[in-house]
Amino acid sequence: MAPSLDHILILLPYETLTSLPSSLTDNFTISPGGSHSDGLTENKLIIFRDGSYIELIAFTPFAHESGGRSTHWWGNKKEGEFIDFALTTDSKTVDYQQNFEDVNSRLGQVSGIQYEKPRAGARIRPDGQKVEWFVTFPKVGGESGISQRGVLPFFCHDVTERRLRVPLDEKNVTHPCGALGVKKFNVFVGEKDADQLRERYGKVLGVGNSIEGNFEVPSLKCEGNLTSISVHGVLPQMEALAENLEERGGLIFGELALHGRVKERESSGKRLLHSMDPANIGLGCITLHLSSVE
């Protein structure tokens, strides 16, 4: 079975994390995250009923004062953008070590990329509870736009109980906007890199290649629900996209679409919830796709 979406990261300035904009607080229930064990980052969470979540993360003042940000794996990412996303597997059937071996075995058939050995991570919640996990990152480096952090997903596997990292209490997964989970999101790279990246995604997910670049992963908690991940190539004639792609080092995360349900008498359709897109070309935004309940 393909892995499931674990979480998607948005990097924010520290001041924004401590005082979130109304476009987030009015639409979502914000759950406390905590401080990571290295002291370089803190986070807050938007947790969904399907078991996935958005991680709102920021570098702490200590990260800047100590110079620690420069050595962090997301240290060169820009604030105000989606920067990465994580998958996970059911540890009862495929744990972090087995997943590492399986993914690299599949990628062995594709030149140029492997995953690093799993590394331990932790954070302390505001209530003092320590949460522990292993993360498995793809190796990065090289001149290609698809050799940077965030192009391929990383994996996150819990050591402590998942409910401690992702508390699915009813109050945490009930959002004013009605969102239930992640419907789809898009990854944009240069057209010359797109075919190679699609092949790599097929190997990482264990589902084979998709010429169109559309991949589906199952929901963690809602049986039958799927999250679509699409890999798009940007052509030079797509001027606005191509310009943004160059500014962002060859990688763009596009729209993050959530799904929800409303009563039949209420309005269904697509709504813009939060935008990080000053160019107004549909990048870096969170939308909600509502369908009516019969």
UniProtKB/TrEMBL annotation:
Residues 5-203 form the Glyoxalase-like domain. InterPro entries: Glyas_Bleomycin-R_OHBP_Dase, Glyoxalase-like_dom. Gene3D superfamilies: 2,3-Dihydroxybiphenyl 1,2-Dioxygenase, domain 1. This is Glyoxalase-like domain-containing protein. It comes from the Eukaryota. It comes from Hymenoscyphus fraxineus. Signal peptide: none annotated.
